[in-house]
Amino acid sequence: MNELGIQPFLILSAFLFVCGVVCIASKRNAIGVLMGVELVLNAANINLVAFARFNPAFRLDGQVFALMVIVLAAAEAAVALAIILNFYNNHATVDVDSADELKG
Amino acid sequence: MTLPVVLFAIVATITAVSALGVVLSRNVVRMAVWLLFTLIGVSLLYFLLGAEFTGTVQLIVYVGGTLILIVFGVMLTAQGPLRELRTRPAEWVVGGIVGALLFGLLVTASYQIALPPASTDHTLPGPGPLGLTFLGVTETSPTANVTGLPDDVVVPRKPVAYLLPFEIVSVHLLVVLIGAAYLARAKRRVKA
User: Fold this and answer.
1) Is a pLDDT exceeding 80 seen at residue B132?
2) Chain A contacts of B179, Cβ < 8 Å?
3) pLDDT class for A3, splitting at 50, 70, 90?
4) pLDDT tens across B64-76, in order?
5) Distances A98 to A92, B73, B184 between C-alpha atoms, Å
6) Alpha-carbon distances, residue B145 vs A61, B113, B158, B167 (angstroms)
7) Domain residue ranges of chain B, discontinuous segments joined by +
8) How far apart, in whole angstroms, are the C-alpha atoms of residue B190 and residue A56?
9) Least confident interval from B47-56, B106-115, B147-156, B176-185
10) Average pLDDT over residues B66-89
11) A30 near A84, Cβ under 8 Å?
């Protein structure tokens, strides 16, 4: 593992992050947008655990914050799904392009 | 090519291909399945890094909890045309260009970071030290110094504990539970 270095993990995490950002920006289904957010959070988590592994100053902190991100992501998914279901109840669609009531 | 390198190559390929599948598939059910494989790949990556507890929590909370929640959302909303909402080709082009630029930026940035100091001890703390630090026991690895400073400056890490964030997270979970139950309660549909 030591000969691998930290760079492959950072590049994989960057790839996951970009996939998540493109997913958020281009999906029209609100649940697809939510999945993009999950991808972004996972990319950040890979970075945290990789730095905890390769930098002795963050040995505890990296894992602690990765655990917190996991818990907060679960909470975020619950609230986002509640909002999406409410939107679906009111509009009978999950297309984010049709959520334009606030347009000035 | 040692065993960790080969394992990392396999797991990283699975994770990256599944993440690409999430982006490229149109059907929202297939997106959920690709996301399942991505999350499992990330947890295997944690096991590979030696963070067994974090990998287990990832499997239990993410794969067993969050993804089931998302699948329920898909099940409750995916009807007929909503299952495949198509993105316009122009948006794909713009999104792809922005994504490629962002990926290039992140890769160059990750090659420019200062490498962490080489250390011989690479074992990550298990659930015992993690639980103790969540309970407020201040403990840090004795050899750890603050990184990113000039070479002649040596500042040891201050011992830290995470009791307050732990409490904030627990209260936050309670608030989220009440809020989600309030938002998603059964109501009369306004228009069919």
Assistant:
1) yes
2) 79, 82
3) confident
4) 999 999 999 888 8
5) 10, 18, 20
6) 13, 17, 9, 28
7) 1-79, 125-186
8) 57
9) B147-156
10) 82
11) yes
Interface with B, mutate which of A10, A18, A86, A97 (most B CBs under 10 A): A18
Q: Tell me what pLDDT residue A92 has.
A: 84
Interface of A with B in 23-42 (CB under 8 A): 23, 25-29, 31-32, 34-36, 38-39, 42
In this complex, do A94 and B77 lie within 8 Å of one another by their Cβ atoms?
yes
Report the gap between the CA of A102 and the closest CA in chain B (Å). Answer: 18
Measured CA to CA, the distance from residue B192 to residue A73 in angstroms comes to 32
| Architecture in CATH for domain B1-79 | Up-down Bundle (1.20)
Q: Does A10 touch chain B (CB under 8 A)?
A: yes
- The rounded distance, in Å, linking the Cα atoms of B55 and B49 is 9
**CATH 1.10.287.3510 correct for A11-92:** yes
Burial degree of B64 (CB within 10 A; 0-12, 13-18, 19+): exposed
CB-CB under 8 Å, B98 with A22: yes
Comparing A29 with B160, the larger pLDDT belongs to A29
Range A92-104 average pLDDT: 82
Please name the residue of chain B whose CA is at the shortest distance from the CA of residue A76.
B176
Domain boundaries, chain A: 11-92
Res A24: pLDDT? 92
